[in-house]
Amino acid sequence: MRQLISNDIYYVGASDRKISLFENYIPLNYGVSYNSYLILDEKTCLLDTVDESKSTYFFKKVAETLNDRELDYLVVLHMEPDHCALINELLLRYPNTKVISNSQVFKMIKQFFNLDIKNQIVVKEGDTIKLGKHELKFIAAPMVHWPEVMFCYDTYSKTLFSADAFGSFGALSGNLFYDEVKDDNYFNEARRYYTNIVGKYGANVCNVYNKIKDLDIKMIMPLHSYLWRKDFNLLIDKYLKWATYTPEDKEVVIIYASMYGNTEEVACRLADILANKGLKNIKVYDCSKVDETVLIAEIFRVSHIVLASPTYNLAIYPKMHSLLQGLINLGVKNRTFALIENGTWAANSNKLISEELSKLKNTTIISNKVSIKSSYNVCDEQSLENLASSLVEDMKKEA
Ligand code: FEO
Hints:
The chain is of the alpha/beta class.
């Protein structure tokens, strides 16, 4: 069966509900789609392939959609294996296909597949390829999130093929466009996808946005998740916030590590005090229970983050330390942190966490820090109250 999107552009991608870990470390609760598009014009042109796990279904869809026509072109926008894995197999099945991409892609094809493409067309920024009515214009999108990435704009259908940008986790269930579904969880998963995969490269996202912002775009077709044909502002507004590390919500997230429940109690008491002071939508997370990719997405979302950690082997509790390394690696900035430590004989995690946070740009640490000895005691009440007051005051300051 052919799956027509619009203007002779067909969907030949596939959804994967079996995969449990994306890139073998990011948990997927709702699967993922690998999008691939086939344009049937005077020339036929496939844009990217799919993950190897979906090979059988993909090649059936390509053959059904081509309906005995030759495949003239394969455009490669991104060389990560969830999209490029079937290039070799495709060229065995369609040996006359010309591959269109940039020089870095051809180098990577050699690296991945030990394959020298004979029928290749090397393009660069601004080059165009005419398929008939459709004309593809190439836009370099380096480090969004790999160096070889390109976008491609079809001047006929006014479609932006955006590689991994504007994608998300989540399998597709027949409906291809975001406006055809009620998916309340979409932006949580889109944020988790962006922040953990593309999050480090905000400046590069801003650069490519400046190249596309004046294009007349009627559709956006990413390599993962829904396609877009309306309400682009919903998506673009989020992307610009994420890319500039601007908090979406002036809210507090409390992330604690706790071996025996004592630090957890302090974190929960702080949440209660903040609620009494009128703060809404406070979130409390156990960093040993909630996946780090969720915590990173939450830290991108909010303005204020409380980290509560025991001292462990005179260092930071391992799960908390891992989260901090994640934030540093992604270049998170523009946030306010508050700290709580717990230690039975040598509490040291506030100092060590402060040192880690000092590696993040434009980050403030609330000066009132709380230090607990083994467990919460009534004498800790005042320092917790002071921390809560400072947080509330700081949030007003930014209003
Ligand atoms: Fe969906 Fe960067 O691969």
